[in-house]
Write a structure and sequence with these properties.
By secondary structure, the protein is of the alpha/beta class. It has a single domain, classed as TIM Barrel. Strand 6, helix 6 and strand 7 form a beta-alpha-beta unit. Helix 4 packs parallel to helix 5.
Amino acid sequence: MVTIMKVIFNADDFGYSKGVNYGIVEAYKNGAVRSTTIMAGMPGFDHAVELAQENPGLGIGVHLTLTTGQSVGGVYKTLTNASGEFNNLTEVERRANAGEIDLSEVETEYEAQIQKVLAAGIKPDHFDSHHHTHNLPGIVSVFLKLAKKYDVKVRIYNRAQLTGEFADIKTTEVFDDTFFGETATTQDLKLTLSACSVKSVEIMCHPAYVDNLVLTNSSYNTKRALELEVLTSSDLMEFIDENGMELCSFKEV
């Protein structure tokens, strides 16, 4: 029996802005994306919820955030400034590696984001995080605790951490984050997929229409439009079809 490889193109940053939201839905309707993760604290959240309701086939997870925009839960001593704005990635990494982040604050904020998504009528199928901060020391334990609590699948760098009390948490066999920047091309994507001989793989992606919010606030901006072009190209869709790959969301793995 031939094993069909399940491929999840997960579009990060749903809810970042209207341009991002529209780009993700375009990549779902006319391209390879079947999964996305929503940011509870960003300006485009309500718009993303509206689009999610209009596109029930799009799998949605929570893109847990500690580095961008306003917190959902308020002001924290180790996570935000006095206005409730998150610290930048460099500072979060420094504090996490130095053991200077109050993990109870992380749990409170993660819970606030998850509950906001649930209150909007979205039942998430997986968790990941903005800038991959859920993989940082200490924070990863909070992340897995909540994934187990809410019975969702995860994106994680080190699959070996899914042992003991977390052994029943599911993920894809492979997570690939190379579809980014200069390697966000159709050719590179084909090579990545061709090299995979597993049952399931997640490909991280960031398709978007570049609006002013993305252009002025995200260091990864214009490349998002190029990603959208690749993800909706007939070249990619024909390659996936010819190689018998199954496009899916985390619900199917």
